[in-house]
From TrEMBL:
Pathway: Amino-acid biosynthesis; L-lysine biosynthesis via DAP pathway; (S)-tetrahydrodipicolinate from L-aspartate: step 1/4; Amino-acid biosynthesis; L-methionine biosynthesis via de novo pathway; L-homoserine from L-aspartate: step 1/3; Amino-acid biosynthesis; L-threonine biosynthesis; L-threonine from L-aspartate: step 1/5. Residues 1-22 form the signal peptide. One of its GO terms (molecular function) is ATP binding. This is Aspartate/glutamate/uridylate kinase. GO terms for biological process: homoserine biosynthetic process; lysine biosynthetic process via diaminopimelate. Belongs to the aspartokinase family. Residues 481-532 form the Aspartokinase ACT domain. The lineage of its organism: Eukaryota, Sar, Stramenopiles, Ochrophyta, Bacillariophyta. The keyword Ribonucleoprotein does not apply.
Length: 577
């Protein structure tokens, strides 16, 4: 068997909001499972424990793996045809408890047996540990130190795996939890929790998680070693809470893997955290665990980065709006970035940058359905001939219409307008302008008081009209066919009496955005998805209509010829499409 090397990424499945939709969560009914540290024993308790591994869930999972082997030539992406180095990434919900960690550990083992060779497995904190740590910080500021829930989760997980009291994993995790409690005691005493201290506080979740995962992999026969991210070269600046990778992190990663990590050992690495030049712990901000995975995959020039979620891949739209939304086989980095920016739960655009730099494909896979191909994100667009790739949206948008005759033929007016936005630290999603006006949108996450102050300042030089309860509906599409897309969209909107408040085509040339009232949003998405993906347009697309008109014209010319006898057959054929 030929082996593949890869990086596995375990992603958290965040709480789904009204503006996120790229993935369909699977409803699962899971049984509680006991775990044994060995695979064979003559004791009744050990036999009982082993039997529990053969639960219906595991049986079904094994059936799925058997199907993979049977269909390797039929299902692309199910297993590599050559050795493929990769990174795997798993998030908090994938590691929520002992049962989930056990499931992931066996998934990794099975993927290795299929021919993959993970150079690294990037893990988030277990379940809701990060949120619990943040809450513990708030409690400490109020005078209470409590890590009971966090300690209970990790200790119970180690108990399920029957880690011995003298096992170094149990000792390491307990030491980290004790250190966390001591830190919170200090916070209570000095009544201060700085961004630097907060980064250290939340780091305990990932640091405990990787040690438990590595130990479980070793138990089931997969050589593994836990690493804090800074020990494998993840170096950042000192922007606590939203640190950026240093330019020389690539060479540091390469050096670490060359000198410290056995190529036959899986490095289980903390996501989300790093070290600044002074050795202080930092966090990478939104999408940080994804960024850790793509940074490792890119620095090591691996063949693939696999992001394992609880869903089959990226979908054509929000399945809560369109239940039969279809899975996409492939999207480009540019398309995925636009999808993420406009609300879809894909990789964060910043996390895709390392993979884009070296064109390392990122595959979104389902840990509950490993035989599914998933969605591949890479430089090239899909070879499928599709007018629209996906439909995404953002709700709760505010639109500002700024108009002034001072704009006409004047220099510096827009500079003055956007100077006010910079002053109030407000960012713009969508923008459209004319000779005397500019319209733009503000996300609902922006500071309301700053928006009000901005409007007051702008009214000194312009008339400002504010519209709330709006939504951005974005089509990820082929710019070369934008005329067809726009013609179809406006025909649908006209027939369905959906008013467009504003329209903009992004500079990326892969998105077209429409601003509509929020109460029209879901209806608009349903109608457009039916048109572009189900071939059930309530109005015929432009090319179909043109064909019908040409046929009608041809019939009219032929009828005229039959009547007066003066029209030639060449004139009739001249109107053919």
């Amino acid at each position: 068997m030929r082996f593949s090397t890869c990086v596995f990424v375990l992603l958290s499945v965040a709480t789904v909001t009204s503006s996120t939709f790229a993935f369909v969560p699977l409803s699962q009914q899971r049984r509680s499972t006991s775990f044994s540290t060995t695979t064979s024993s003559s004791s009744p308790s050990s036999s009982s424990s082993s039997a529990l591994f053969l639960s219906e869930e595991i049986k079904e999972y094994r059936k799925g793996l058997s199907q993979i082997h049977k269909n390797l030539d039929e299902v692309g992406g199910a297993a590599p045809k050559k050795r493929t180095d990769c990174v795997f990434k798993f998030g908090g919900s994938s590691l929520a408890n002992a049962e989930r960690i056990n499931h992931v550990a066996h998934l990794i083992k099975d993927q290795i047996e299929l021919g993959y060779r993970p150079r690294a497995v990037v893990c988030s904190a277990m379940g809701k540990t990060t949120n619990n740590l943040l809450s513990a910080g708030e409690f400490a500021l109020e005078g209470r130190v409590c890590v009971d829930a966090i300690r209970t989760l990790h200790v119970n997980t180690m108990d399920e795996f029957q880690f011995d009291a003298k096992d170094h994993t149990r000792q390491d995790v307990n030491a980290l939890l004790d250190e966390c409690e001591q830190m919170l005691t200090g916070v209570r005493m000095i009544q201060e929790l700085s961004p630097k201290s907060l980064d250290q506080l939340v780091s305990y979740g990932e640091r405990c998680s990787v040690r438990i995962m590595a130990a479980r992999l070793n138990q089931i026969g997969v050589p593994a070693q836990a690493f804090d991210a800074w020990d494998v070269g993840i170096q950042t600046d000192s922007s606590f809470g939203d640190a950026k990778l240093l330019p020389d992190h690539e060479s540091a990663v390469q050096k670490a893997f060359d000198n410290r990590i056995d190529p036959n050992t899986v490095a289980v690495v903390t996501g989300f955290i790093g070290h600044d030049p002074n050795g202080k712990i930092t966090t990478l901000g939104r999408g940080g665990s994804d960024l850790t995975a793509t940074a490792l995959g890119a620095a090591l020039r691996l063949d693939e980065i696999q992001v394992w979620k609880d869903v089959d891949g990226i979908l054509s739209t929000d399945p809560r709006v369109v239940p039969h939304a279809v899975a996409l086989d492939q999207v480009s980095f540019e398309e995925a970035s636009e999808l993420a920016y406009f609300g879809a739960q894909v990789l964060h655009p910043i996390a895709m940058q390392p993979a884009m730099k070296y064109n390392v494909p990122v595959r979104v896979k389902n840990s509950y359905n490993p035989s599914a191909v998933g969605t591949i994100i890479q430089q090239e667009k899909s070879s499928q001939d599709r007018l629209v790739t996906a439909i995404t949206y953002k709700k709760g948008i505010t639109v500002l219409d700024i108009s002034s005759t001072q704009m006409l033929g004047a220099y510096g007016f827009l500079s003055r307008v956007f100077g006010e936005f910079e002053k109030h630290k407000l960012s713009v999603d969508v923008l459209a302008s004319s000779e005397v006006s500019v319209s733009l949108t503000l996300d609902k996450k922006q500071d309301v008081s700053e928006i009000n102050a901005l409007i007051t300042d702008l009214q000194d030089c312009a008339t400002v009209t504010r519209k709330d309860n709006m939504s951005i509906l974005t089509l990820i599409s082929d710019v070369n066919r934008s005329s067809e897309v726009l013609a179809t969209v406006f025909r649908v909107f006209t027939q369905q009496q959906i008013k467009v408040e504003m329209m903009s085509q992004g500079a990326s040339k892969v998105n077209i955005s429409f601003i509509v009232r929020s109460d029209n949003l879901e209806h608009a998405i349903t109608e457009l998805h039916s048109c572009f993906f189900d071939n059930k347009c309530s109005v015929e697309p432009m090319e179909v209509t043109n064909k019908v008109l040409l046929e009608e014209e041809k019939e009219a010319v032929a009828a005229t010829a039959a009547t007066d006898g003066n029209t030639t057959s060449e004139e009739v054929e001249a109107v053919a499409p």
